Amino acid sequence: MASKRQSGSASRINRKLRDAAGILKDLGFGPRQSNDTAAYVLLALLDLLPSRPWSAVSNPLRGITPMIEFIRTAYKKDYAPNTRETIRDEAVKHFVESGLLLRNPDKPDRPTNSGNTVYQIEPSALSLFKCFGTDAWDRQLLDYQASRSKIRAELSRRRNVSRIPVVLPTGDRVTLSPGGQNPLIKLVIEEFCERFVSGAVVVYIGDAESKFLHYDVAYLNNLDVVIAPSAKMPDVVVHDTKRNWLLIVEAVVSAGPIDPKRRMELKALFQHSKAGLVFVTAFEDRTSYGRFHQQVAWETEVWIASDPDHIIHLNGERFLGPYPDVAPS
């Protein structure tokens, strides 16, 4: 009897897996986004147990780790913790881009790289899945496919509304993804630069959604700075053309001040620069600075957004300028 139960359970699991993969193919996903991993992810996002009918699907808020736990418990498939990035990159990211999946619908301003990021099946897709296996499936699928461009456009509009607009010193505009250190990055560019390096050129801005969101490759190359795609970049790089200084800025909310180790990393990354290097750590307020002040390296600067007219100069013989070890030769 136990063997029959195990056989029946395996059969139900395989059937659900085939169904999910078939649905993804019907929705136009290619082989990589309709493989077993993608099918398991879809089942986890629908909270669908092997024994339950498709009419029982739901759309809970679920992060990557809870998806892995659901798959292991319900479908006896064990994904190691280090497969989180694979699941995100090969399935979840594509589901979000297609409009099938919502990211952080409970808190749209949650940072993209937050450990609390959750995903949810988009409501019209949920309605479609509920009729899988019924006579209504083909018609509902056609209706859903016809409406997908509108769904994606609306989701894109919502994402754009929540993005953070930033005005560069040139008057050009870029937008940053919501949350995290990005509101502070906005203040660095619009407040710090205006006060201390007016007229400077913002040559790089990083973002959780796009590492090289704003990146003037040619400009940095003219300064003999060549950045590898794998480089651990700072948050902002600004060229003060009047004094030929390259300001390397880290915006700190929860982690990442320019400590001695990070200063050495950044010095090495920009070692061939024809402009002198100035290292700046930006904080939102004195409280956040207080949490990190013992970590911040000497021979760097600190700017606090709540006191925008002042800079804390950590020792050295000059104020807001490159030290001899990072001055142009």
Describe this structure in words.
The protein is α+β, with helices and mostly antiparallel strands and 329 residues long. It has two domains: 2-162, Arc Repressor Mutant, subunit A, CATH 1.10.10; 164-326, Trna Endonuclease, Chain: A, domain 1 (3-Layer(aba) Sandwich). The chain is built from ten helices and eleven strands. The protein has helices spanning 2-26, 36-45, 64-75, 84-98, 123-130, 137-162, 182-196, 217-222, 260-269, 286-292; strands at 101-103, 119-121, 164-167, 173-176, 201-205, 214-215, 236-240, 245-252, 276-283, 301-304, 311-313. A hairpin with an 8-residue loop joins strand 5 (201-205) and strand 6 (214-215). Helix 1 (2-26) packs across helix 2 (36-45), helix 2 packs across helix 3 (64-75) and helix 5 runs antiparallel to helix 6. It starts with a helix and ends in a 16-residue tail after the last strand. 32% of the residues are buried.
Query: What class do helices, strands and sheet pairing give?
Result: alpha+beta
Q: Say which CATH homologous superfamily of the largest domain is assigned.
A: BsuBI/PstI restriction endonuclease, C-terminal domain
Q: Averaging pLDDT over every residue, what do you get? A: 88
Question: How many distinct folded domains?
Answer: 2
Which value, in Å, is the CA radius of gyration? 25 Å
Give me the strand/helix succession: HHHHEEHHEEHEEHEEHEHEE
Remind me, CATH topology of the largest domain? Trna Endonuclease, Chain: A, domain 1
Number of helices: 10
- Main-sheet strand order equals 6-5-7-8-9-10-11
What is the beta-strand fraction?
A: 5-15%
What is the count of β-strands? 11
For the record, the CATH architecture of the largest domain stands as 3-Layer(aba) Sandwich
Q: Compute the separation of the termini in Å.
A: 81 Å
State the helicity in percent bands: 40-55%
